[in-house]
Design goal:
Number of strands: 5
Helix content: 40-55%
Order of helices and strands: EHEHHEHHEHEH
Strand order of the largest sheet: 2-1-3-4-5
Radius of gyration: 14 Å
Shape: globular
Largest sheet: 5 strands, parallel
Oligomer: single chain
Length: about 140
């Protein structure tokens, strides 16, 4: 299953760790650092990846909830049938770092996973992968 990992560019190191962990669980995670080359049309490539993916994991960090790109990616997933029941919010670090009002209201109502600031342990990533596969 192809997974789109939505995150703030400022959280790229964390995203790389989560991507690697999800890949060890057998998921095909789209990685902009590997798929986007200098000169590529960034917006078109991200749009293509969103359309081709069947699940989205959103890393919710202070940077991500302020990111216009992350908000647009969430909106896309909420409106796409291909993502039905496969929008997976992941709170990163201490929940109190992100004021609730900054998280899109519908995402606040979805069940979420919790990772520590370093990307979490194998068991939590395994649970995220299981949630994605369960709704495949």
């Amino acid at each position: 299953m192809k997974v789109f990992l939505s995150h703030s560019h400022a959280d790229s190191r964390l995203a790389a760790k989560v991507t690697a962990a999800l890949r060890t669980q057998g998921l095909d995670v789209w990685d902009p650092n590997a798929h986007l080359l200098p000169g590529d049309n960034w917006a078109a490539e991200v749009a293509r990846a969103l359309e081709q993916s069947q699940a989205m994991v959103v890393l919710l960090t202070p940077n991500a909830v302020r990111s216009t790109h992350v908000k647009r990616e969430i909106e896309f997933a909420l409106g796409a049938k291909s993502y039905s029941n496969r929008l997976i919010p992941v709170m990163v670090g201490d929940k109190t770092r992100i004021p609730e009002r900054e998280i899109p209201w519908i995402v606040r109502r979805l069940p979420h996973f919790q990772l520590n600031d370093s990307g979490g342990g194998d068991s939590e990533v395994e649970r995220i992968a299981s949630a994605i596969r369960r709704h495949a």
